[in-house]
TrEMBL record:
Pfam families found in the cross-reference section: Anth_synt_I_N (PF04715), Chorismate_bind (PF00425)
Domain Chorismate-utilising enzyme C-terminal, residue spans: 164-420
GO term, biological process aspect, one: L-tryptophan biosynthetic process
Signal peptide: none
Organism: Imtechella halotolerans K1
GO molecular function: 4-amino-4-deoxychorismate synthase activity
Protein known as: Para-aminobenzoate synthase, component I
Domain Anthranilate synthase component I N-terminal: 77-118
Amino acid sequence: MQRTQACFTISNTHVFKHQLLQWAQSFEEVVWLDSNEYQHSYSSYEAVLAVGALTALKTDYFHAFDALKEYRNHTKDWLFGYLSYDLKNDTESLTSSNIDDVEFPDLYFFQPQKLILIKENKVTFSYLPMVDDEIYDDFSAINSLVGMEIKSHPPLTIKKRMDEDTYLQQIAALKSHIYRGDVYEANFCQEFYATEATIDPINTYHKLNDISRPPFASFLKLENKFALSASPERFLKRNGTHVVSQPIKGTARRAENMEEDEGLKEALRTDEKERSENIMIVDLVRNDLSHYASKGSVIVEELCKIYTFEQVHQMISTITASVALEIDSVDLIKSVFPMGSMTGAPKIAAMQLIEKLESTKRGLYSGAIGYFAPNGDFDFNVVIRSILYNAEKQFVSFSVGSAITARSVPEKEYEECLLKAKAMRTVLV
């Protein structure tokens, strides 16, 4: 669908981004994607905002990818939304029967009436014809906004879905499957939650983002459900015939002392257990991408490289491939979903054990938030380090996990989960 575009120069990108997200709160459908000016490869935009649905697709997992493919081919326009982890039940003969208190639909995408893209100090407004007469008024209104009143929410009591003893027992059970050869690696997750919870989503997002500064941050509002994500991980990006995936496996804490911090970073880089976990997932991603990749085009550009973020050091690998232009983007995503970093190897067996041993339905957690461009290009993050909020039910949830292998020490895996949970807990209590 043809859009009307207008480009403006902005003097202070940081201030404008805050004003933009504040302005967006009057809409029922909002997707905000922010790179936080993190210098990394394969970046297309500094930030993107999509608001106001002209059309939308909301569905459960049953034939969800077919519905998304039809929707994308019909609209031939920008689409923003998410893929929940439980779309695994569409790609394989699997089920999801664990408790779900957040209640996000399995898949939700919308065609935004208003799209705003930021790159360096340029902002492009891309509006559908029925609202294109509002571009200049909207730009003026956004610039006129002053700082929001900071609202504090009532103290939340964060509860564990499983206590530490239960967690250790489940890890022991998972390792017994590993010793039997059922799987080599599985990502095991646990949920933390609060009931009767009232939070200010936009203020909570800003606090989480400010202490994390990740390259794949996102704020999602769909009716009365919110995702506040400080994700450091890209799931999958397509640019024409080029595809890139950047799985994370390997985490170390930061230290205030620079010398100690460098020591922690180096220890992660040389940790054989962490490297083996990462390499297993790299092999899985290479295999997944090979389903549609041109022969011989799957390349590991970076193996076990250490990236530093505000809260943690992460071990990240970068895998690229070439695909023919005629390969449908939804088919491509379906062939690699869910992402290897949040499942395990072999993938199907790992997902079966995850469903058996975890206590909650993952839902949007360990799914993906992102967009499709009209030409089929796309970019999606991995929904980790994220707070999910059902405002109607007053329910807040965040989950964390780690990769379990034969070398895993259950107590250390539990400590890693607490480290990953630190940022979310900090902004909620």
